[in-house]
Amino acid sequence: DGDLTLMWAEWQGRRPEWELTDMVVWVTGASSGIGEELAYQLSKLGVSLVLSARRVEELERVKRKCLENGSLKGKDILVLPLDLTNTSSHEAATKVVLQEFGKIDILVNNGGRSQRSLFVDTSLDVYKELIDLNYLGTVSLTKCVLPHMIERKQGKIVIVNSLMGIISAPLATGYCASKHALRGFFNGLRAELVTYPGITVSNICPGPVQSNIVKNAVTEEVTKSVGNPGDQSYKMATSRCVRLMLISMANDLKEVWISDHPFLLAAYLGQYMPTLTFWIIGKLGKKRIENFKSGLDADSSYFKPLKKKHD
Ligand SMILES: NC(=O)c1ccc[n+]([C@@H]2O[C@H](COP(=O)([O-])OP(=O)(O)OC[C@H]3O[C@@H](n4cnc5c(N)ncnc54)[C@H](O)[C@@H]3O)[C@@H](O)[C@H]2O)c1
Question: What is the value of ipTM here, to two decimals?
Answer without folding.
Answer: 0.99
